Here is the input.
Amino acid sequence: MQSSFLDIPVGHPFPLYNLPYGVFEYNGKTSVGVAIGDYVLDLTALEAKGLIKVKTLKGREIFSGQSLNAFLKTGKACWSEVREFLRHFLAADTSDLRDNAQLQKELLIPQSFITMKMPIEVSGYTDFYSSIEHATNIGKMFRDANNPLLPNWRHLPVGYDGRASAIVVSGTKIKRPHGQLKIGDNDPIYAPTRQFDTEVELGFIIGTGNDLGSPISIHSATDHVFGAVMLLDWSARDIQRWEYVPLGPFLGKNFGTTISPWIVTMEALAPFSVPGPVQDPRPLPYLLKDVENFNINLHLEIKTPKMDAYQEIARTNYKHMYWDIAQQVAHHTANGCNLQPGDVLGTGTISGPTPDSCGSLIELTWGGANPIKLISGEERVFLSDHDSMRVKGIASMGNLSIGFGYAEATVASAVLT
Ligand code: MN
Here is the structure.
């Protein structure tokens, strides 16, 4: 495995192999960059100096904006060529940067000096419901313990159109939402949610879209996907339970969704591919393929104001997913719906087969029956004001591992302004 001229310890989330993309602010200026070890390589500055040598670009500037969207639009061949160029530019044996201290100073910025921004302009947000363990748990709690999956579930990846405008970057506070709560047999009231939850998900970022009316084939679906981020889908369960019939999630879901700032590319994820479950019944031909997941360990952690450090409360893995990203893309466009560069496709809560591998508080506490015990002596069923949650993702296979970093947010109190 090629290594960088920079000293990056084994197990670091951002070795030369990873090269995730993000947008950052440094000295009041917003730039596009790629993470390498504890540094970010400033691609906006690199491009301005005319040092990005990539044939498919033919001199076009793609890193001069405030987001990665211009790069997303270039397509798979260009993403691959830029990745190859960057590996060459940063590798110990081929780097043009290694012996140029002045250029290093201009282009490599310590991550501790920067503020991460939203990496993309989000065009649209769709959230699926593709973990069979999650759908089964929720079905048992809300509907029918003996028959938890609805009849459509094994035939199509169930999803809903979410709210693009409410997706925010890690670190942004999420305010406890007000909404309609129906408690017992009483009339509904308008009040802050009492059941503030989050869902651990992956968010896939669409690179190139399709024309309205032209579905994307299952066989080329992943060519349209640029990469993935960690995603926390904040959920007000009491608002959700009252409002969701018959059209699905609305205000219980669209008051904030947190994504991690670094986008790990599909090319970097390729070696972590693992076969998914055999689907029974066999999906219709437009969805039929071998399910391909990735071995990504997901760690969900909580910290209350009384705690000095985060405490892990669940550990799950993306490899458990029933419907994969290609099937989600093919299904989303099967009616001709047009995906666009910068669309985010949430996988849905990622839960595993054991009680400690659930990706949401409502499942971890089984609807409140088993509160989570914290090292501070406190207990939680749902989130209190000023609690923080974060999820960390690490893809691993044999000796190779890469990280996503964190998606993290703190609950702000419900103040109407
Ligand atoms: Mn969700």
Notes: The first strand starts at residue 21 and ends at 26. The chain has nine helices and 24 strands.
